[in-house]
Amino acid sequence: MTNADRISGIEVKASPFASIISQQIPDLSSYEDLYKHFHRNPEISTLETKTSAKILEVLQSLNSQYGSPIELKHPIGGTGLIGIHRNGTGKTLLLRADFDGLGLQEKTGLDYASTARQFDSHLDNVEKPTMHACGHDFHITSMLAAIETFLKAKDSWSGTLIYLFQPAEERGCGAQMMLDDGLYDRAKHACPEPDIVLGQHVMALKTGTVHTQTGPTMSAADSYRITIYGRGGHGSMPHYTIDPVVIASHIVVRLQTLVSREVPPDETAVVTVGSFHAGHTVNVISDDAILQVNIRSFSETWRKVLLDGLHRIVDAECTAGRSPKPAKFEKLNQFPLTKNDADVTAQVNDSFISYFGKHRVDTNMAAQLGSEDFSWLARRIDKPYMFWFFGGTDAEVWDKHEKKGTLNEIPANHSPYFAPVIQPTLRVGVEAMVVAALTFVGKK
């Protein structure tokens, strides 16, 4: 393949992997149909039984077609599953794709839009509309097409690839569930420890592009439900009560000083009170008030400052307000800091630039305040990892909004209007995963 060769209308630069991909990547039309299937049929975190079964069905079909080289292990951590693909000596890599949807009503108007509904038995047992509003359907499909590429290109690489399909990323518990279920316990699942862990995510960026960052890439996030106790009574007799709404209101305001007065201006942090609930009737002072608080940070040092400050402020305001007992803290979820390994990222960046061309690869993407549980898969065994992003917004739409300075109007992840274009988004997702893996297991 020369520099003039093009794939899906997009120029591909000279790369040691270009000929492998051009010759071995499968026809993606069937994977486009598979993507539409996953998009139409999302399932809420921890309840992804049909999604997991469909992934397993495709993997079994690939095994049947290519002589069963992939050892399948399921279920792991609820609905999770892995495929272990041993193909000679060399490094062991873990490639991860998440597959849960969100409790959200889709409003894209696509002919393959989701109309699914599901009882969220894990959280509140409420029936909810369900949507793949974060692109996990692309992650599944890109991984499956990449797997077929590795099967067809078996003579071009040597090592072991672990294909991990993970549930419940949206609630920050899926990776931990798989680990707690003995993911790396050889006696239980026969999964070897990887030397490197790799993952990717589609975003509302220009399609055809790939984006990376060295070091802190996605924030740590800590979420709590905090119950503030008071003493209820009649609204006309506040002097007989201890009003938890007043105490909680002071907490909400005071928490804003954590970022503005305790974290340095050159550090990035966010404290959000996303929910405040107390009482049901206009003339009744309630017994308690409930806050839900989310904290995001990019370093363990300032994460500790923020969490210590949260407890200090809550305790102090409860004391000041004469709360009859200490506040109750319940941890809702915890996402680790995603901090890409410098050496792994440098090597993958070189491969991305060589393959996609420098104009399509951003190696200095701004760190994202969104959070991921991906890094637990590497942190648990103290291994290096890298997480990157690829664009899903139609190039013409992106260019139009960029020219007008209205990029903020493009529907982003978790929007009911989030609708990445299928191509070249899917192809780039496949290529990026294959190129990153071949960086470490490809035959030179």
Relative helix content? 25-40%
Low-confidence stretches: 1-9
Strand content: 25-35%
At the third CATH level, what is the topology name of the largest domain? Aminopeptidase
Largest sheet: 8 strands, mixed
Q: Which architecture of the largest domain does the CATH hierarchy give at level 2?
A: 3-Layer(aba) Sandwich
- What is the radius of gyration computed over CA atoms, rounded to a whole number of angstroms? 24 Å
Average pLDDT reading: 95
By CATH reckoning, the class of the largest domain would read: Alpha Beta
Distance between the termini: 16 Å
Estimate the global geometry from the Cα principal axes.
elongated
What class, by secondary structure content?
A: alpha+beta
The number of domains = 2
Q: Please give the order of strands in the largest beta sheet.
A: 3-4-8-5-9-20-10-19
| SS elements, strand count | 20
GO molecular function, one term: hydrolase activity
Domain Peptidase M20 dimerisation: 223-317
Binding site for Mn(2+): 134, 136, 170, 201, 401
Cofactor: Mn(2+)
Report on this structure.
Pfam families: M20_dimer, Peptidase_M20. GO terms for molecular function: hydrolase activity; metal ion binding. Belongs to the peptidase M20A family. Residues 223-317 form the Peptidase M20 dimerisation domain. The chain has 444 residues and is α+β, with helices and mostly antiparallel strands. The chain folds into two domains: 6-218 and 337-441, Zn peptidases (Aminopeptidase), CATH 3.40.630; 220-335, Alpha-Beta Plaits (2-Layer Sandwich), CATH 3.30.70.360. It has helices at 18-24, 29-40, 49-66, 136-152, 174-180, 186-189, 244-262, 300-320, 342-356, 376-379, 395-404, 425-441; strands spanning 6-7, 10-11, 70-76, 80-87, 92-98, 117-119, 127-129, 159-166, 196-206, 210-211, 215-218, 220-229, 233-234, 269-277, 284-285, 288-297, 328-335, 338-340, 361-362, 385-393. Strands 3-4-8-5-9-20-10-19 form an eight-stranded mixed sheet, sandwiched between helices. Strands 14-16-12-17 form a four-stranded antiparallel sheet, covered by helices on one side. A two-stranded antiparallel sheet has the order 1-2. The radius of gyration is 24 Å and the shape is elongated.
